[in-house]
Amino acid sequence: MRPDTPAAHTAEAERLLRTAAQYPEDQEPLLLQAAAHLELADDRAGATSLYDQLLTVPGVNLPLVKALQAANLWEYGHEAEARAIINGVRTSSPGDPAAWAIVAETLEAHDELDAAHETFTTALTLLVDPSEEVPYAARALLTGRHRVSRLKGNPHDEWDALADTLHAGDISLDELHDPKRLWALGSNDPAVLRAEIARLQSELGTYRAALSRPFPVAVLHWPAAELTELLAGYPALESEYSSHKAHLTDIESALRELSAGGTTNLGIVSGSVPSYEAFAASERTSPSDADLLPQYATTLAARGRAVSWPPSRNAPCWCGSTVAYRGCHGA
């Protein structure tokens, strides 16, 4: 059975649902993947049911789920409901770039270019400071806005210039986002067709690079109560954590060092003692083994638990304080 057939996608969705039932703590990423497979199988109603189920899960990323739900609903004739959800997501001003990107791309896909451009612009204004490093997760907003600007025939502005600066492909964004590219595919001129093939290869290379690291390089964060419990149960780890305040400082320092070294797509995962003990048991080793900590962090990131670092400007600091990142660990 080919992996891209509707039957194969349905089977994979069923497998993910069984896994989610076994590991309820990982429901969100597993159900989101299952919903995506149902959409690929053209089971839009089934995907909608999963999104509805996800909205009842405590702690779920509500703006992201609602954005995906709206995109799915619009695809099978529920435009009015999709628009209402999209308006609600935009009004809530989420701090997650992915939710904004999905909403804007949904509007773009249905030729709502003015609304898509406005959505991209609002998100960038809220989440990105052009004078600071652009968070990895927010770069799709820049690329998407650049694409829509080209479709609208808008002149370049500072956001488009920033997108050009961050673009690492061999072919410029202006070429990749040229509205006349569809016409090139119908050309009889070999030179025009070769140029279009080169553009498609460049895009494919960019997509492959993005998929080569499906989850962030993540640093492990212990909330204060969890760290106290961890050290009480496993005193050998005190050499790793002298105090909670020092632990938070070490996290920020490690992430800044990774960023300065050129590592992108960075994140933070928060651990809990029961989860860590279960992970240690699965690895058949003692939780006192400090070498287990980075493996635990990587596993949490692979399960979709990572929060992107650095936070956007004015967003609450990752440490859990109510202070904006700029005035806390981002100072």
Give structural notes.
With 331 residues, this protein is mainly alpha-helical. It has three domains: 6-177, Serine Threonine Protein Phosphatase 5, Tetratricopeptide repeat (Alpha Horseshoe); 178-212; 217-327, no CATH class. 60% of the residues lie in helices and 4% in strands. A three-stranded mixed β-sheet has the order 1-2-3, with helices on both faces.
CATH homologous superfamily heading of the largest domain: Tetratricopeptide repeat domain
The share of residues in helices is 55-70%
Largest sheet: 3 strands, mixed
CATH topology of the largest domain: Serine Threonine Protein Phosphatase 5, Tetratricopeptide repeat
In what order do the strands lie side by side in the largest sheet?
1-2-3
> How many β-strand stretches?
3
CATH architecture tag of the largest domain: Alpha Horseshoe
Structural class, from helix and strand content? mainly alpha
What overall geometry do the principal axes of the alpha carbons give? globular
What is the rounded Rg?
22 Å
How many domain units?
3
Distance between the termini: 54 Å
Helices and strands, in order, run as: HHHHHHHHHHHHEHHEHHE
Can you give the mean pLDDT? 88
What is the CATH C level class of the largest domain, in words? Mainly Alpha
Which runs of at least 5 residues are low in confidence (pLDDT < 50)?
none
**Strand fraction:** under 5%
Number of helices: 16
